[in-house]
Amino acid sequence: MTTKERGDESLIIVMSKEAEAGDVEHVVERLRDIGAEAHISEGRFRTVIGALGDRAVIQQLPWEAFPGVERAVPVLKPFKFVSRDFQEDDSVVDVGGVLVGGGHFAPIAGPCAVESREQLFASAAAVAKAGAKILRGDAFKPRTSPYSFQGLEEKGLELLTEARDEFGLPFVAEAVDPRDVELVASYADILRVGTRNMANFTLLSELGKQSKPVMLKRGLTATIEEWLNAAEYIYKEGNHDIIMCERGIRTFETATRNTLDISAVPVIKGLSHLPIIVDPSHSGGRKELVAPLTRVAVAAGADGFMVDVHPAPETALVDGAQAILPDEFAEIMNDVRDLCAVMGLEL
Ligand code: PEP
Ligand code: MN
C-alpha cells in the first residue's frame, strides 16, 4: 500500500531551542518505526521534523510528550516540505559555486538554444563580461511545432561545457525527457524543467533523484499551488535544491507572449522557502520588454533573473524576437546593480 492509498497525514514536529541531537534522533526513529517518512530541517534556532505517513498511525502517538518537542502541528497545505511552515529560513541553492536565494542574487543569461560554437561563445563571452553569474543555453528544445529546430542534443551539452570552462560560468540546460535526465545531469550545473513539462511527474520524480539542482519553470496555465506541488515532487525524492522560475502565464492578453505574474514573486516567498527568479524574455516575448520586466523582478524581491542574449537575434533559430543584444544586456546589468543595492541583495 502506498502512502497515498492510506490517506496521508503530515505533521510538522517543532523541536524546542533546547532540544538535543538525541531528542531529534528519538523522534525520527519512532517515525521510521511506524513506517512514516521523516524529513529534517535544521534552522538557525531550532530543528523541525516533517513527518509523512498513515494518518491513523501518526495521530496515535503523543508527539508533544516526547523530550525536546515543543509542538506538533498538522500541515493542511497540499505541499509540505517546500512550505515555509516546514522551513522558516530561506533556502540557498548552490549552482556550481554560485549561490541563489537568501539574499544572493543571480543574473542568468545566454542564448535560448545552442546553435553553434561561434554563437554560444559570442553570447557567453559577452554575458560573462557584463556580470552574469550563470550561463543559459539549451541542447534539447521542446518546440511548439515538431518541425522547428529541436536542439543540438549532446553536442550542445559539450559546447556548453567548453563555454563553462572558458568563461567560468556554471550553466543551466533543460531536461525535456526523463530518459535524458542522466545525460543532461552529467554535463549541466543545474537542470531546468520547462513550462510544458511542469506537470510531468515522471520527469519531476527523476529529477528529485539527481544530485544537481533543479530550476522549475511555472506551467503556462498552472496556479501557484500547482506549481508548488510540482516542486514538492522533486523535494520529496530527496533533491532539496530547487529554484522556482516565473516565466509568464497564459491569459486573454495577446499583446505579450505571456503575462508576467509579478505577484508570484512575493506570494511564493510567503508560502515557500525556495528561491524564485523571473524570466522576462519568455514572459514578454519581445526584446523591448526585457529591461522593464527585469527591473520590476528585482524590485519585487526575486532572487535572480534569466534572459535570452544572442549575438545576432535576426539569425536566431529559436525565440529571436525576445533575444537582446550583448550591449543591451550590459545596460540592464547596470540597472540591476543599482536595484540590488536598494534591495540589499548581494550580487
Ligand atoms: C526556455 O527557457 O528556453 C524555455 C523553453 O522556456 P519555457 O519552458 O518557459 O517556455
Ligand atoms: Mn526560448
Could you explain how this protein is built, in words?
The chain has 347 residues and is an alpha/beta fold. It has 2 domains: 3-74, Phospho-2-dehydro-3-deoxyheptonate aldolase, domain 1 (Alpha-Beta Plaits, 2-Layer Sandwich), CATH 3.30.70.1140; 93-343, TIM Barrel (Alpha-Beta Barrel). It has 12 helices and 14 strands. It has helices spanning 3-6, 21-33, 55-60, 117-130, 154-167, 181-187, 201-208, 224-236, 264-271, 280-284, 290-300, 326-343, and strands at 8-15, 37-42, 47-54, 69-74, 93-95, 98-100, 106-110, 134-136, 171-174, 190-193, 214-217, 242-246, 276-278, 304-308. The strands form 3 sheets. It has an 8-stranded parallel sheet. Helix 4 packs parallel to helix 5 (154-167) and helix 11 (290-300) packs parallel to helix 12 (326-343). It is elongated and about 65 Å long. The N and C termini lie far apart (48 Å). Mean pLDDT is 95; it is low at 1-6. Bound molecules: phosphoenolpyruvate and manganese (II) ion.
Give a quick rundown of the structure.
The chain has helices at 3-6, 21-33, 55-60, 117-130, 154-167, 181-187, 201-208, 224-236, 264-271, 280-284, 290-300, 326-343, and strands spanning 8-15, 37-42, 47-54, 69-74, 93-95, 98-100, 106-110, 134-136, 171-174, 190-193, 214-217, 242-246, 276-278, 304-308.
